[in-house]
Specification:
61 residues; mainly alpha; 0% strand
C-alpha cells in the first residue's frame, strides 16, 4: 500500500512538525510558525505527485 516515496513524504512531515514544535516552545515563535506552514505544503506536494502517478498509470491501461 505504501511506497518508499510515501514514507519519505511522511518522514519529512514528521520532521517538520517536530522541528516546528521544538522551535516554538523554545522561544523561537516566529521560526516555529514558519516551519509549521511546511507541514500542509509537504502533504499537498506528496498528494499531487501521488495523483499524477495514478493518472499516468490509468492512461497506460
Amino acid at each position: 500500500m505504501f511506497k518508499v516515496s510515501d514514507l519519505f513524504i511522511l518522514l519529512a512531515v514528521a520532521i517538520s512538525f517536530v522541528v516546528s514544535g521544538l522551535s516554538y516552545f523554545n522561544g523561537f515563535e516566529t521560526q516555529g510558525l514558519f516551519t509549521a506552514i511546511w507541514v500542509p505544503s509537504i502533504l499537498a506536494f506528496g498528494i499531487y505527485f501521488k495523483l499524477a502517478a495514478l493518472a499516468g498509470r490509468s492512461k497506460e491501461q
